[in-house]
């Protein structure tokens, strides 16, 4: 059975270089990698090279729930593309496309089987929207 592909995207009013840095640098990841204000990302580690690993911890701020997000990079083109495989075998591709003074961030990921597709799309899109808000408000 072929996996369902889900696409999310956002346009960020920054260059691909700034967007890439904020997307891949753990000092930034911990500031945007959560879907709502009652969650946070207390820890992130990232080595964006082929064979390198990504790790982040997402937790409810009240301590009621949390999970680790782990992946291994399959392809990395700085400022342009990331392809990685999640620990459960699902593939994720993120593209960074320059359009004038903005960067379109497009992520395509394979759906998992435990949650409805609409819920998965909404959660990943909320994180990407949070990323946009963070990048546009933090230029360093």
UniProtKB/TrEMBL annotation:
Record-linked InterPro entries: ASHA1/2-like_C (IPR013538), START-like_dom_sf (IPR023393)
Origin superkingdom: Bacteria
Positions of the Activator of Hsp90 ATPase homologue 1/2-like C-terminal domain: 15-136
Family: Belongs to the AHA1 family.
Name by which UniProt lists this protein: SRPBCC family protein
Species whose genome carries this gene: Flavobacterium azooxidireducens
């Amino acid at each position: 059975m072929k996996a369902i592909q889900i696409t999310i995207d956002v346009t960020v009013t920054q260059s691909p270089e700034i967007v890439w840095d904020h997307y891949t640098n753990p000092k930034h990841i911990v500031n945007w990698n959560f879907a709502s204000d009652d969650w946070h990302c207390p820890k992130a580690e990232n080595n964006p090279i082929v064979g390198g690993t990504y790790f982040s911890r997402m937790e409810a701020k009240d301590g009621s729930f949390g999970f680790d997000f782990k992946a291994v990079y399959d392809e990395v083109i700085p400022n342009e593309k990331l392809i990685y495989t999640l620990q459960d075998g699902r593939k994720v591709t993120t593209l960074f496309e320059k359009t004038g003074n903005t960067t379109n961030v497009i992520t395509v990921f394979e759906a998992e089987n435990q949650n409805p597709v609409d819920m998965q799309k909404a959660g990943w899109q909320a994180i990407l929207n949070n990323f946009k808000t963070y990048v546009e408000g933090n230029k360093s």
